[in-house]
């Protein structure tokens, strides 16, 4: 099978069957489980990972340790799990950039660090549209203000991202391409550091998840101008969508989901799916996400595989349309 075949629905679903017999894995877990988050603390993947880790620890009876491995837009952490021994003791909580990063490597002529079919989907946790935020003292009160300023000062206005071709970079470049503007991309090791610099004014714009931005909006350190979803989000009901503003091709969602390395024994995949089903039905876990402004969006493995396949195909098409960009 073409290693990029995961972006088709059939190949995405076939991942669920690409597991080895359980064999001697009945005693799993036999040690602590490492849950890799391929970004620093403070972003959407980290928001998803921590309550999930606490719940899995109770259900599975072993420590579940969140391991933040930021860098390269998520590629470093994704690669670490893709290459990990498939014994169920190394898992991944990652974002929608999962399929974009290998394509970006090909686009930029770099060695591809991992392929998506090296990972098996277990459960979707969150799925929010990104929201465009600006520094509280920025002069723009609307997207139209920002676009007009960016056209007057091409390549000057600095915006942050979680890394080249990561979720926050692709969403902003999608907007910039459709608006016919050019901004100054400042890549970080994750959304957390980028948000810190937005708050302090070192950058002036950032696309991020609603749950990550909500506390800062409430604190008055940033304000939001638009969201990238097809509909308005409950946490920012007065914020228009880009589609409502006339940008019909600007739509982007930042989902977070649990994966393991391909080749996980079938019995382990089954236990993880059952544990995640229990976790995502837990009122305490759901309350954490709701309070953060990022409501749970659970999908079990078969449905999640189909979702990832369709979303990956759409994002790869967008990345190819964006093409090579400075700082990519």
Features:
328 residues; D-Maltodextrin-Binding Protein, domain 2; 2 domains; 6-stranded mixed beta sheet; 5-stranded mixed beta sheet; 20% strand; globular; disordered N terminus; BUG; Bug_dom1; Tripartite tricarboxylate transporter substrate binding protein; signal
Please summarize what this structure is.
The protein is α/β, with parallel strands linked by helices and 328 residues long. It is 39% helix and 20% strand.
Give the neighbour order of strands across the main sheet. Answer: 2-1-3-10-4-11
Helical fraction? 25-40%
Superfamily (CATH H level) name of the largest domain: Bordetella uptake gene, domain 1
According to DSSP, the number of beta strands is: 11
CATH topology group of the largest domain: D-Maltodextrin-Binding Protein, domain 2
- Classify the secondary structure makeup into a structural class: alpha/beta
Number of helices: 11
Q: For the CA atoms, what is the radius of gyration?
A: 19 Å
**SS strand fraction:** 15-25%
Shape: globular
Architecture (CATH level 2) name of the largest domain: 3-Layer(aba) Sandwich
Q: How confident is the prediction overall: mean pLDDT?
A: 90
How many structural domains?
A: 2
Summarize the main sheet. Answer: 6 strands, mixed
Give the low-pLDDT segments: 1-25
CATH class of the largest domain: Alpha Beta
* N-end to C-end Cα span: 28 Å
Listing every helix as H and every strand as E from the N terminus to the C terminus, the arrangement reads HEHEHEHEEHEHEHEHEEHHEH
Protein name: Tripartite tricarboxylate transporter substrate binding protein
Family: Belongs to the UPF0065 (bug) family.
InterPro entries: BUG, Bug_dom1
Keywords: Signal
């Amino acid at each position: 099978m073409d290693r990029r075949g995961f972006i088709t629905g059939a190949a995405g679903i076939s991942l669920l069957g690409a597991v080895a017999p359980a064999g001697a894995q009945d005693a799993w877990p036999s040690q602590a489980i490492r849950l890799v988050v391929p970004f620093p603390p403070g972003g959407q993947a980290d928001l998803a990972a921590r309550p999930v880790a606490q719940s899995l620890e109770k259900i599975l009876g072993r420590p579940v340790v969140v391991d933040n491995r930021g860098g390269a837009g998520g590629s470093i952490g994704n690669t670490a799990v893709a290459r990990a021994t498939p014994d169920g003791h190394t898992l991944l909580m990652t974002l929608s950039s999962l399929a974009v990063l290998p394509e970006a490597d090909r686009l930029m002529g770099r060695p591809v660090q991992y392929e998506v079919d090296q990972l098996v989907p277990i459960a979707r946790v969150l799925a929010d549209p990104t929201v465009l935020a600006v520094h509280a003292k920025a002069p723009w009160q609307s997207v139209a203000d920002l676009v007009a300023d960016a056209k007057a000062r091409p390549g000057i206005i600095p915006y942050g991202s979680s890394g080249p071709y990561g979720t926050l970079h692709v969403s902003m470049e999608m907007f910039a391409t459709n608006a016919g503007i050019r901004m100054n991309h400042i890549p970080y090791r994750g959304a957390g550091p980028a948000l810190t610099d937005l708050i302090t004014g070192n950058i002036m714009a950032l696309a991020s998840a609603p749950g990550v931005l909500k506390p800062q909006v409430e604190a008055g350190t940033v304000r939001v101008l638009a969201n990238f979803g097809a509909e308005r989000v409950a946490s920012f009901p007065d914020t228009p969508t880009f589609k409502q503003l006339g940008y019909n091709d600007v739509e982007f969602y930042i989902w977070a989901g649990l994966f393991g390395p391909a080749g996980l024994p079938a019995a382990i995949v089954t236990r993880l799916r059952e544990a995640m089903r229990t976790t995502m039905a837990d009122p305490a876990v759901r309350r954490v996400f709701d309070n953060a402004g990022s409501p749970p969006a659970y999908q079990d493995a078969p449905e999640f595989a189909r979702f990832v396949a369709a979303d990956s195909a759409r994002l790869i098409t967008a990345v190819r349309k964006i093409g090579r960009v400075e700082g990519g």
